[in-house]
Amino acid sequence: MGQKLQVGRGAERPCTLAAMGLRSGTYAGELRRELAARNREWARGKPHVESYGGDPVVVYCPYCSTDEDLPAGAERERHGNFFEPSYRAILARSEWARRFNKVHAQGRALPRWMEDPRRKWRELDSCMSSDALLMNVFCAPGASAVRQLLGVSEDGLPEFGWKAKVPLKSGLFDRTEVDMRWGAVLVEAKLTEGDFQTRKAEVVEAYRDFEAVFDRDLLPRVEAITVRRKSAAEFAEAYSQEWEDTGGLSPDEVGEAAREFQTGLVAGAEAEAPREVRYVSYQLIRNVLAAYATASSFCVICDERRPDLIEGWFDVMRAVRTAELRTRLKVVTWQELARALPGELREFLQAKYGIGAPATQPIHGEAV
Asked: Which of 52, 170, 258, 293 is most deeply packed, by most CB within 10 A?
């Protein structure tokens, strides 16, 4: 895709999504580098492989080992990406353990596990997985202490990968997957993801309750080029033409003139390229609609080191029409949650993810 130009609300913000993406990419990239470094240290002595590249992603394998509280010769299954009590709780509940069936999207690009080369890497094996972090926190014994932060009032345990039924104008439903549902609270968890995705306007506006829930003029939108951006060399005829008399020019001047000419070829093609309008933060829009349809609350959990994601969520919340629904929308950081968790789990989160007590004032709560 080529450059994406922002339209609609937010003229005071950067005029291109490329600039916005660069900002998000900076925060996401810095966090990915920190997590990569922390997990290279954490993975020592645990079965794992590292992806190729300068800042490798660590992916872990389940393994078995003995423990002092087990009978002689007995072993317990462990997983390097998980807090041990959380992992035991996951294995004990089949509906939680099914989350391990989700295959890693880039698994084929990862090195094979030498002890079992046929093993497929799972999403929850990755040190960058926000789903793994979510389950580390909410499957742990004592995690009910964070119930108040999320606003959960019902008894019961959280559900992961819950399928919502978001009604469409056509009479059908979008069976979108919500990261977690706990009682009447829906949760979207983020860690190193770049953004909340974009989707073309026709798809977003096809939801039955879109106009009832949102003021569309306040939602951030972009105008996106729908064809791949070409390099100057792909305009073969124009690229090779004798475009100017270079007599009397130095080699440096000829090179600069050639670069300007080639840049103009690319810019001209982009100016004529077909475009479509897309809504920013599609995942959030869809999940707010899911909360509206199910009379639920909706909470985004992200890292305080990702202010770009927090800002994007507030942009969506401001476009919600009714104050009643806005009071059911909130954001909580992993750092805020950590303060309410048992000590051993806090130590795990600090060592593996760098998640400790918040460095700033709490930011969770309703939109204004």
From this structure: 293
Residue 198 and residue 216 in one domain: yes
DSSP string for residues in 125-155: GBTT-HHHHHHHHHSSTTGGGGHHHHT--S-
Contact 60, 79 (CB under 8 A): yes
Q: What is the dihedral of CA 261, 263, 264, 265, to 10 degrees?
A: 90
> Does the global pTM surpass 0.85?
no
* Same-domain pairing of 241 and 146: no
134 shares its domain with 237: no
**Phi and psi torsions of 345, nearest 5°:** -70, -40
Name the burial class of residue 166, with classes exposed (0-12), middle (13-18) and buried (19+) by CB atoms within 10 angstroms of its CB: buried
Token couple for 85: 């009590």
| Together in a domain, 211 and 251 | no
Q: How confident is the model at residue 362 (pLDDT cuts 50, 70, 90)?
A: very low
Q: Are residues 235 and 304 in the same domain?
A: no
Q: Are residues 143 and 254 in the same domain?
A: no
Length of the chain: 368
How would you class 69 by CB atoms within 10 Å of its CB: exposed for 0-12, middle for 13-18, buried for 19 or more?
exposed
Establish if 336 belongs to a structural domain: yes
Only one residue has tokens 């003139």, namely: 257
Same domain, 56 and 144: yes
Domain assignment present for residue 358? The answer is no
Range of the domain at 10: 4-222+277-353
Who contacts 189 (Cβ-Cβ below 8 Å, separation ≥6)? 130, 131, 133, 134, 179, 180, 301, 302
- CA–CA gap between residue 106 and residue 113 (Å, rounded): 15
Question: Under a CB-based contact definition with an 8 Å cutoff, are residues 202 and 249 in contact?
Answer: no
pLDDT tens across 76-111, in order?
A: 899 999 999 999 999 999 999 999 999 888 777 788
